[in-house]
Amino acid sequence: MCSYFGIDTSNYTTSAAIYYKDGLVKKTSKLLSLKAGSVGLRQSEVVFQHVKRLPEVINDTIDITANLPKAIGVSSRPRDQVGSYMPCFNVGVSTAKSISCVLKIPYYEFSHQAGHIVAALYSVGRLDLLKKSFFAFHISGGTTEALLVEPCDETVIKTQIVGKTLDLTAGQLIDRVGSTISLSFPAGRNLELLAKKCKENFKIVPCVKGTDCCLSGVQNLCEKMRKEKKDREQISKFCLDYIAFTIDKMCFNILNKYGQKPLLFAGGVMANSMIREYMLKKYDAIFAKPDFSSDNAAGIAVLTAIKEGAI
């Protein structure tokens, strides 16, 4: 069976995926290891862990002797913006280029962000949107951006930032608040579990300037709540509610400014069921399935198949 291989070495996860021509995707992802109490890794450590883990992840994903891929793709940069760069993606690029040379197969580069968007669309059977323009919110540990996405012959899609955070990303906020209440990194899952135990409704006025937002003040408010001996459940729910209200306001302003278009939500933070339920009550939006929300190489494999005319 024809197959197309994808690799992604992000700031949080080592991942590989294979897209089969019948539409199925097999993917393998492994979170990078952090010391207890840490809220991130330096790029030198990220690169070192990818170098060690990527061969194992590839081996768990595909048996090249049984199913030779037709082409290989890789995330080579965080975004499609000029100057977008992180050293961690070089590990995937070097490996993918080597596989391409050895197997004599086509090689393609995409952005990590494009991979998130396409993985989200694939997960809910909406790859048809790649032929249209739509808005995509990419909300994760490294990014909080709203994008206007349009078709592009060269890279399948092209993106224009129409809204963004002016300070912390939503994922950074979650992990910093998690650290404040003694949760391990990454804190998203445990913060959600605590928040669901809180029934309090908070009065929140999000800091949104046009289509951009600010989130650093939320960290200060949560630290203040901690000093005031507020429950961890209250702090967790306040943090997630604030993020949901912020995304809502950004979304409202973007639709008013740029016009009505389909809405897609992708990225690790959007795996949060509380934020998802809040947004679905207000918008006819598309959300990635939770296991395709966090960093993974599925979108890169699908993009590779598209470039090869298999989709």
Number of DSSP helices? 9
Order of helices and strands: EEEHEHEHEEEHHEEHHEHEH
Low-confidence segments: none
State the helicity in percent bands: 25-40%
State the total count of DSSP E strands.
12
Oligomer: single chain
From the spread of the alpha carbons, the general shape counts as globular
Q: Which structural class should the secondary elements be placed in? A: alpha/beta
> What radius of gyration results from the CA coordinates?
19 Å
**Overall pLDDT score:** 94
Please give the alpha-carbon distance between the first and last residues.
14 Å
Order of the strands making up the biggest sheet: 3-2-1-4-5
Percent strand equals 15-25%
> Mind summarizing the main beta sheet?
5 strands, mixed
Please describe the topology of this protein.
Layout: E1 3-9, E2 13-20, E3 25-31, H1 43-61, E4 71-77, H2 89-103, E5 107-111, H3 112-123, E6 134-139, E7 144-152, E8 156-164, H4 170-180, H5 188-195, E9 208-209, E10 212-213, H6 216-227, H7 232-258, E11 263-266, H8 273-280, E12 285-287, H9 298-307
Parallel strand pairs: 1-4, 4-5, 6-11, 11-12
Antiparallel strand pairs: 1-2, 2-3, 6-7, 7-8, 9-10
Helix pairs in contact: 1-2, 3-9, 4-6, 4-7, 5-7, 6-7, 7-8
